[in-house]
Each structure stands twice: as structure tokens, then as C-alpha cells.
Write a structure and sequence with these properties.
The chain is α/β, with parallel strands linked by helices. It contains 20 helices and 18 strands. It has 4 domains: 220 residues, Rossmann fold, CATH 3.40.50; 92 residues, Rossmann fold (3-Layer(aba) Sandwich); 76 residues, 3-Layer(aba) Sandwich (Biosynthetic Threonine Deaminase, domain 3), CATH 3.40.1020.10; 83 residues, 3-Layer(aba) Sandwich (Biosynthetic Threonine Deaminase, domain 3).
Length: 503
């Protein structure tokens, strides 16, 4: 670990990277009752911290290595860091990116001088192709996180934090994917200021470090979520884990809604828009403060990046209110008669109805999809739920149901008539030209599609909700066909919201 300290102190990053500000978040500090600072890595030349590690790794190359050029596999920030670093040093850079990579990121790498090769539908396939090119052409592979020089470059972020805030500091919150950033920060901070806590933050659907710390060894996740794509890594790096298991004090997991709320919080204080991974640390800080009841502490969150696809902003805005506990989403059964909506609104009092969708169900009842504005967070949500039930309403709380928030709120339109043997599945597949047509052709040859909802959220993967008529005797053969499709899927047939609104 002392070797890391020396590497960080002598890291070559400032030829291209900036010392970013440590800004106080005035609004968030007031709301949380603590003094909150944001380390603004979104202000780097490539809008993320990745430039630090990429440049430091490339700076260590011999003249012979530089002549052969460098290569990496990345769909995002690391690709831009390698491209800019190589251009600054006059080195040829080849970047292998999945074909699913949004055009904005591909164009950014090309603008920085990188030669882009689009290969495969995911990072693993792109990485395999990069490895093949290394073997064939002798280029040097620049890893995104699992390398001591990359870790040392990222560690300069921690060095700056302690220099910029020499006064008492309680904790630093760091987003974690492969672990290079937290390893670098922890290796520096914990050896100079062991009193300062270093706390990892991960999405609930990509807990690579959390599971590894609990198991005492690195684990490989079967799958990871795609929303916080900047940290969508199935296994923590070997070198980062060696540092993390010694120096990381805690690991906080946060939901998609909490990340969206954090993006809004950062915007309110800085007028900057973070990518989901860039807001991860703030989301974890907020949850930590809420769970621990912290007051009067000094806390730092690393805003790691701002390479946000514009098309994702509507999804973020939609989910931020739920993540901030300012909206509850309920399915409510009300009488099918004149005046029943007015009575329902009276039942929820002065709270605003943010959404109201329903369709005729039968002569006696209507099923309502309702969004209700909140002022006092989760406690008020429980109070509204309890009050509605006491008034005789049948209520299902959908606030934490992912299918309802992603698909159902845009689909509510009543039950289909005369549809037999219907089952409901959710799919994820690479978002590239022809992917949807390929999906429909392969799925729809044998069984009838009775319902279909597709919504592009500007991510690398599309998400589809499909109702399919499959007789009971053919269900096993159907599932075998799904496995051959090669797409991630899950059965939503038993989801209670499906029974209420669609089946």
C-alpha cells in the first residue's frame, strides 16, 4: 500500500487532467443538516475522472510500446480518456466499442483522435476482440480499472480532496464499478487520514464490491442492471479489491429512483447534469445520512462524470420525484359510478394527483393508476396508503415496482377480451438498428403476441414488455426458445399489477 502512495504522489496526470473544484452544495447541505461538498470530476476535459488513470498508464509506456500504439475496450468514459491521452502524447489509439454504444459517445471518441472499431453487442464481446487485436498487432492494452498505474492516476482525485479540505472531514463517498477510483482514493486517504471514512456506493442491481466484501473474495454477478451503465461491471477488479478490502469502511446500495433524485439534487446546486454513475455518490451519501441520522458532519461526494445522453433526461425527470419520496404510485379500485373520481380526490386531501389513468373494468369497479404528490416522504406515503384503506378502497402500492414505473404507467388501457393462455415477459436486448425486428421475427413465429410495449430510454439496451399466448402444454418448449434467443428475460405473469390492469 505504501507503493500506491508513492505512485499517486508521482503520478503524471496534470499534462492533460485538471485539478477539479471541491464545491460546497449549499442547497443539499441545508436540506440534509450536514456540510456537503462535491468533487467536480464532471469538469475534466472528457467530463469524467477516467482521464486521470488513462493518462498515467499511457505515460509509463516505453518508446517501443508507444510506437506500436495503444488499444482499449470501452463504451464510454474510459474510451474518451484513452483517446485524449494518446493524442496528447502523439500515440495511435484504437478503441473497440460495442455496436450498442450511443452515437454521441462514438463521435466523441473520434473527435478526440481515436480510431473506433464497433464490435459485438456488449463489453465482453468488445473486450475479446480487443484482446485478439493485441495478440495480432502487439498494441498495448490500457485497462479501465484493474491496473496499479490506472489506480494511481485515479488516486490523485483523493490527493486533491485532502489538499482542498485540510480541515476535519468525516467521510468521502465514491461510486464503484470496476473499483479503480475507490482503490486510488482509499489508498491515499486512509494512509494519510485514517480517521476519514471511505464509503463505496453501488447500484442495488450491480453490487460487485458489496458482495465481494461480504464473501471475502471477488464474486462474479450473473447479471447487472443497465441504467447506471458507467458502473455496470460484473466483477470488481483484482487490484482494486486488494485495496478495498483493507481500506473501504462501508458500502451503500442505492436504487434507480434514488440515482435519478441525486441527478436532480446536483442540478439544483450546480446547474450541471450528471450521468447516472456521476450522481451515484450523492445518492449514497443521502441514503447514508438518512439511515445513520447524521447531523453536522462534513461529507464529500465524488461527482464522477457528466456524459449523459440527452434522450435519457425525460426518464430521469420522471423517476426523480419517486426517488426523492415526493411521489407515490398506487393502483386503487374505485366504484364505477359518477362522482367516484371526485370522492377519491377528496380522500387524498390537499395532496396533488400527479397522474390518473384508468379504463372501464366492469359495471361495478374501475382500476385506477394514480400518482400522488408527497411533502413528507415515505412516512406520508404510508399514511396515505393507510387512510385510503380505512376509507374502504382496495389499494396496491406500486411505488417500488419496476415494471409499473417503466412500462405500466404508459400502458394502462384495460383488460383484453377473449385472450386465452396469455403470459407476460420482460426482455432486454441490444439497442441497435434491426434489433427490434430481429426480436419480433424470432419470437413471433410460433406463438401469438397479444400485447407489446417497447420504450427506448436512450440506453444501450431496449426494454420490452410482451404478452404471449402460450398453451400450458407448450410452456416448457417456449422457455427453451427464450434461452436460444440469447436475450435477458424474466417472467412477469405473477405481477399483481398485470392482473389488475392488463390480463
Amino acid at each position: 500500500m505504501k507503493a500506491y502512495l508513492q505512485k499517486i504522489l508521482t503520478a503524471s496526470v496534470y499534462d492533460v487532467a485538471r485539478q477539479t473544484p471541491l464545491d460546497e452544495a449549499i442547497n443539499l447541505s441545508k436540506r440534509l443538516g450536514n456540510r456537503i461538498y462535491m468533487k467536480r470530476e464532471d469538469l475534466q476535459p472528457v467530463f469524467s475522472f477516467k482521464i486521470r488513470g488513462a493518462y498515467n498508464r499511457i505515460a509509463q509506456l516505453t518508446d517501443e510500446d508507444r510506437e506500436r500504439g495503444v488499444i482499449c475496450a470501452s463504451a464510454g468514459n474510459h474510451a474518451q480518456g484513452v483517446a485524449l491521452s494518446a493524442r496528447r502524447m502523439g500515440i495511435r489509439a484504437t478503441i473497440v466499442m460495442p455496436r450498442t454504444t450511443p452515437g454521441i459517445k462514438v463521435n466523441a471518441v473520434r473527435a478526440l483522435g481515436g480510431r473506433v472499431i464497433l464490435h459485438g453487442d456488449n463489453f465482453d464481446e468488445a473486450k475479446a476482440h480487443a484482446d485478439k487485436l493485441v495478440e495480432e498487432r502487439g498494441m498495448t492494452y490500457i485497462p479501465p480499472f484493474d491496473d496499479p498505474d490506472v489506480i494511481a492516476g485515479q488516486g490523485t482525485c483523493g490527493m486533491e480532496i485532502l489538499s482542498q479540505h485540510p480541515r476535519p472531514l468525516d467521510a468521502i463517498f465514491v461510486p464503484v464499478g470496476g473499483g479503480g477510483l475507490i482503490a486510488g482514493i482509499a489508498a491515499y486517504v486512509k494512509q494519510l487520514r485514517p480517521d476519514v471514512k471511505v464509503i463505496a456506493v453501488e447500484p442495488e442491481d450491480a453490487p460487485t464490491l458489496h458482495h465481494a466484501l461480504r464473501a471475502g473474495e471477488r464474486v462474479t454477478l450473473d447479471e447487472v442492471g443497465i441504467f447506471v451503465d458507467g458502473v455496470a461491471v460484473r466483477q470488481i477488479g483484482e487490484h482494486p479489491f486488494a485495496v478495498a478490502k483493507e481500506f473501504v469502511d462501508d458500502c451503500v446500495l442505492v436504487s434507480t429512483d434514488e440515482v435519478c433524485a441525486a441527478i436532480k439534487d446536483i442540478f439544483d446546486d450546480t446547474r450541471s447534469v450528471m450521468e447516472p454513475a456521476g450522481a451515484l455518490a450523492v445518492a449514497g451519501l443521502k441514503r447514508y445520512v438518512e439511515e445513520r441520522g447524521c447531523e453536522g458532519e462534513t461529507l464529500v461526494a465524488v461527482n464522477s462524470g457528466a456524459n449523459m445522453n440527452f434522450s435519457r433526461l425525460s426518464h430521469v425527470a420522471e423517476r426523480a420525484e419517486v426517488g426523492e419520496h415526493r411521489e407515490a404510485v398506487f393502483a386503487v379500485t374505485i366504484p364505477e359510478r359518477p362522482g367516484s373520481f371526485r370522492e377519491f380526490c377528496e380522500a387524498i386531501g390537499n395532496r396533488s394527483v400527479t397522474e390518473f389513468s384508468y379504463r372501464y373494468a366492469d359495471p361495478e369497479h374501475a382500476h385506477v393508476f394514480a400518482g400522488i404528490g408527497l411533502h413528507d416522504g415515505a412516512e406520508e406515503r404510508e399514511a396515505v396508503l393507510r387512510d385510503l384503506r380505512e376509507r374502504g378502497y382496495s389499494v396496491l402500492d406500486l411505488t417500488d415496482d419496476e415494471m409499473s414505473k417503466v412500462h405500466l404507467r404508459h400502458m394502462v388501457g384495460g383488460h383484453a377480451q377473449n385472450v386465452s393462455d396469455e403470459i407476460l415477459y420482460h426482455f432486454e436486448f441490444p439497442e441497435r438498428p434491426g434489433a427490434l425486428l430481429k426480436f419480433l421475427r424470432r419470437l413471433g413465429k410460433r406463438w401469438n403476441i397479444s400485447m407489446f410495449h417497447y420504450r427506448n430510454h436512450g440506453a444501450d439496451y431496449g426494454r420490452v414488455l410482451v404478452g404471449i399466448q402460450v398453451p400450458a402444454g407448450q410452456r416448457e418448449r417456449f422457455r427453451e426458445s427464450l434461452d436460444k434467443l440469447g436475450y435477458q428475460y424474466r417472467d412477469e405473469s405473477d405481477n399483481p399489477a398485470y392482473a389488475l390492469f392488463l390480463s
